[in-house]
Amino acid sequence: MESLLYISAIIVAIAFAVLVGYLVLTLKSANRTLDHVANTMAGLEKQVNGITHETELLLNKTNRLADDVQQKTESLNTVFASVKELGDSVQQVNRSIRHVSGVVSNQAVKQSEQIAQAVQWGNVAIDFYTKFKARKARQEQTSTLHKEEI
């Protein structure tokens, strides 16, 4: 029975040795996997640092661009204000012209009879002047003919 005890102790020792062997292989494999993960994480950290730097540069450029757009928008606001003032001025001039033309039109309607009389008197004066010139020209012709006959 003692021999059975020795044999079972040897079997337990062999089983323990095999178990330890497989445990060592598993731990070595786990060690290689952890080394690979550590290398991957180091590479990932470098990439994240690079991305962070690029993002920082992009953010700075975006901020500068936003400032530039803000300044240009503010300068455009003054231009639009000037254009609005110009439009208001033009509108005021248009109102004044409409008012003046309305007043002139009303006065023309009110004084159309007087204007018609003035035009008639002007025509009479032109006719009178034309007849006067024609009479004077005839008198000069007649006097020139009399002088030639003498």
Automatic annotation (TrEMBL):
SUPFAM superfamilies: Methyl-accepting chemotaxis protein (MCP) signaling domain. Signal peptide: none annotated. This is DUF948 domain-containing protein. The chain crosses the membrane at residues 6-25. It comes from the Bacteria. The keyword Lyase does not apply. InterPro entries: UPF0478. Keywords: Membrane, Transmembrane, Transmembrane helix. Pfam families: DUF948.
